[in-house]
């Protein structure tokens, strides 16, 4: 039984370790959190050497959830993608067990009518990886037939459905530049908290006000504690519009769940950052 927590990236201008050499930042982040989203792979497939460096900076139990390239999911919409998919799978191979699940984020235009395409795509994927799908079309959250169709397709492939919970963020009007920017970009979909596998993955977007972020995730503390008692091993990714306090918030979420499930091991203490000196 283990709860992994993490953020959308492993380096940010406001985080501890920001002044470390770039080659050391992931290792420092991994002392704060034990999972990270792989958003960068959506925009470009990294080299194997780059991915090897990620592996050497993290323990085998660390969880990466790399996102499939946009050419696969958004541009070609899961069709005729053998070449870019093969290149992606080859690139991330050095992660080994650290590649917790491959994240298939689909565009908002990917509708229930497109589920057969997803089914064919999942069927052809190698069984050496786990897969997790994020959908954004409103019908997948409001239409019972669409929900059942997607759940059946994912269950047949032993794939998870990743909810991106933005309900706390959209509960009140934005109050900062970062929130105003996120207001126009983040998906507005109903809450979903049903796990399909024994390793659910959740993306949660709070507010730049940490207190409101914590208030908004209380339902997830309860859900996560229940999953752990059921023998599941969830991963929670904590976002805020500016992400300034995201690693500390992720650790706080872990602490709050552990208060409900005392048998859950505590996270290790983060590596201290030595102050820079002139000599």
SS-derived structural category: alpha/beta
Q: In DSSP terms, counting alpha (H) and pi (I) runs of 4 or more, how many helices? A: 12
Portion of residues in beta strands equals 5-15%
Would you identify the CATH architecture of the largest domain? Alpha-Beta Barrel
> Can you give the mean pLDDT?
95
Helix content: 25-40%
CATH topology-level name of the largest domain: TIM Barrel
Per DSSP E runs of 2 or more residues, the count of β-strands stands at 9
- Helices and strands, in order, run as EHEHHEHHEHEHHEEHEHHEH
Strand order in the sheet with the most strands: 3-2-1-9-8-7
For CATH, the homologous superfamily of the largest domain is named as: Protein of unknown function UPF0759
- Could you tell me how far the N terminus lies from the C terminus, measured between alpha carbons in angstroms? 46 Å
Largest sheet: 6 strands, parallel
**How many domains is the backbone divided into?**
2
Main CATH class of the largest domain: Alpha Beta
Poorly predicted regions are 275-279
C-alpha-based Rg, rounded: 19 Å
Overall, the morphology is: globular
InterPro entries: DUF72 (IPR002763), UPF0759_sf (IPR036520)
Pfam families: DUF72
